[in-house]
Amino acid sequence: MNSDFEGTLRVIVALWREHGVDIRRPAKLEEIASVETRLGVPLPPEAVALYRNVDGMAASEADFPISTRLIRIWPLAELRLATSSEAARFSGGIVFADYLVHSHEYCLTSDGAVAIVAGDASHIVSPSLAVFLRGYAADDVRVFR
To answer: Which pTM value belongs to this model?
Structure first.
């Protein structure tokens, strides 16, 4: 993984810690492999790097801090595949996060982009997880809509 992406991950983890987000310990390779087996698809390398740094947010939605940009990055155990009823274009993408307590969800598409999963309003918001997380860290409004 490149140093820019690693730097972005450090910024995000520091942001979460600064604002009291209950973050999970880094995932082990065996845990990642288990999720890939359950989903039937491999995680993209950027997602593996994310989960090797931190296994998402453990905070409940009831006490979700506004400082997290209202996006919750899910732990590995919560990852699932997008269904055709959610977003036909992105069916089979890996759903990994949500915005504003499931107002919409985010998925990693088969080509590595990040899409909002919201029925007919589903669309790409970022060409990659790395770009998405940089936008998240910078509070860039483009990752929210």
So the answer is: 0.88
